[in-house]
Write a structure and sequence with these properties.
9-stranded mixed sheet, 502 residues, single chain, GMP Synthetase, Chain A, domain 3, 26 strands, alpha/beta, Luciferase, domain 3, 27% strand
Length: 502
């Protein structure tokens, strides 16, 4: 059994060197070629002095080169940090500075973007590895070392880095490959970018099964019909995405016009799938299995539920039961364990898939990685998800919502406080409140309600342009409403309930 993520690739290359590993941009790499390319990247990093535990930024879209870069960073003993090329420069600069990246891996077209973020980090384009030896490198990591850091939205106004070790990730990867029934004949796609935790599945679980990772072209990602055409042409058999993508595909993808009989498994995660759209998709593609996977970035996937044929009813799909080698339990408000059907509580997770913590934020880590309240004989940390659930009669859990100010937008975690913090950077904005607005197709949209100081004319476009300087696109409010004043509670706080009801 592999105990380091990079071993998945070396073992796949030894087992089936000629099998296609990645199909992207009309070409493909075999497992032998991907293994050799990643060895070259590792040697280029080692030549620069990259040491075990160093952070290597990966500024790129998902591609054969960027996946080789990820494996190369791991083979050098480093921890990779995916950087979203479409994110605002200020946000990327914060991530590079916060994690102390030693190197930024990128392509030739993004060298200038990488240089602007470098802050002392070396810039290494893929081409720099071309002359390196393709031979294997000496192993430089152990299973408790960090494999990657994924930055998510933070309630304090800045992103926080979720630290995932090799052991944490492999717990998920090995379970996921088995749960999806992956084989070497599969062609697997998740349109999730590398900085989104859904990408861990197609980058690593696909390799575990010696299957082929197929990369959805950027141009197709926002057009449902283009996605359907691509699914047919590429003979995709396993798909993994947020429900909002599948909703658009069901409603506007004209699926009946395409032969998608090869699509045998559809996995969704990251947000609630509106039942009527799930039912529509299942009617359009009745031969596929439908798997609902749940879990925040901090735990990887921790529960799963297979939707039975005809089982998409009027209510939300259950998030299911615990994955292998993981335990979940719910705690009532007064601290007791939820044990009877219908009881409500906050979901806790225990097991080897839990994150190591938040990079550089021990206090924040202690808020969510807490002593197990039901273990008294020894110390054990469990993760408080902040998600409220009920226990169903069949032992599955049903998701109710959040206990804090975090929402999901197109599957991304968004702390409303981070959006508000960006709004307050505008010199003319005096007060700001951000609310989630339910949306049938996308799950939620963001509404910003603001007041200004009257120092100048401020338009909706002014506010949106300002937000785009600080926030990734999915966090920019869709609706901007101006008020003379925000409503207050009796304690003087912004009355968010009142705002939502107006």
């Amino acid at each position: 059994m592999a105990y380091l993520l990079q071993r998945l690739l070396t073992e796949a290359a030894a087992r089936r060197p000629d099998r296609p590993a990645i199909a992207a941009d009309g070409s493909q790499l075999t497992y032998a070629e991907l293994d050799q390319l990643s060895n070259k990247v590792a040697r280029a990093l080692l030549r620069l002095g990259v040491a075990p535990g160093d952070r290597v930024g990966v500024l790129a879209a998902k591609s054969a080169d960027s996946v080789a870069g990820i494996y190369g960073a791991l083979k050098a003993g480093a921890c990779y940090v995916p950087l979203d090329p479409k994110a605002p420069a200020e946000r990327l600069s914060y991530v590079v500075r916060d994690c102390g990246a030693a190197v930024i891996l990128t392509d030739e077209t993004r060298k200038s973007q990488a240089a602007a973020l470098a802050q002392g980090a070396a810039i290494v384009p893929w081409t720099a590895a071309a002359t390196e030896s393709a031979g294997p490198c000496e192993e430089r990591a152990i299973e408790t070392d960090l494999a990657y850091i994924l930055y998510t939205s933070g309630s304090t106004g800045t992103p926080k880095g979720v630290m995932i070790s090799h052991r944490n990730s492999l717990t998920f990867v090995e379970w996921a490959a088995a749960a999806a029934g992956l084989t070497e004949r599969d062609r697997v796609c998740s349109p999730a970018p590398l900085h989104f935790d859904l990408s861990v599945f197609d980058v690593f679980a696909t390799c575990h099964a010696t299957a082929c990772l197929a990369v959805l072209p950027d141009g197709a990602a926002t057009f449902p019909v283009s996605i359907a055409q691509w699914l047919e042409r590429e003979r995709i058999s396993v798909w993994y995405s947020v429900p909002s993508v599948l909703t658009l595909l069901a409603c506007f993808g004209k699926l009946a016009q395409f032969d998608l009989s090869g699509l045998r498994t559809v996995i969704f995660a990251g947000e609630v799938f509106p039942p009527k759209y799930l039912a529509r998709l299942m009617a359009e593609l009745p031969r596929a299995r439908y798997l609902n996977w749940y879990g925040p970035t901090e735990t990887n996937v921790c529960t799963a539920f297979e939707v039975p044929q005809g089982g998409a009813g009027a209510g939300p799909v259950h998030i299911g039961k615990a994955c292998a080698n993981t335990e979940v339990f719910a705690v009532r408000g007064e601290g007791g364990l939820v044990s009877a059907p219908g009881e409500e509580g906050e979901l806790y997770v225990r097991g080897p898939s839990l994150m190591r913590g938040y990079w550089g934020q021990p206090a924040k880590t202690r808020e969510v990685l807490v002593p197990n309240p039901f273990r008294t004989g020894y110390d054990e940390l469990v993760y408080r998800t902040g998600d409220l659930v009920t226990l169903e009669p069949d032992g599955n859990y049903a998701y109710l919502g959040r206990r804090d100010a975090m929402v999901k937008i197109r599957g991304y975690r968004v702390e409303l406080g981070e959006v508000e913090a960006a709004l307050y950077r505008h010199p003319a904005i005096r007060e700001a409140a951000v609310l989630p607005v339910p949306d049938e197709l996308l799950g939620s949209r963001l509404q910003a309600v603001i007041t200004t100081d009257g120092s100048g004319e401020v338009s909706r476009e002014d506010v949106l342009d300002h937000c785009r300087q600080w926030l990734p696109g999915y966090m920019v409010p869709d609706v901007v409403e101006f008020r003379e004043a925000l409503p207050r509670t009796s304690t003087g706080k912004v009355d968010r309930v009142g705002l939502a009801g107006q």
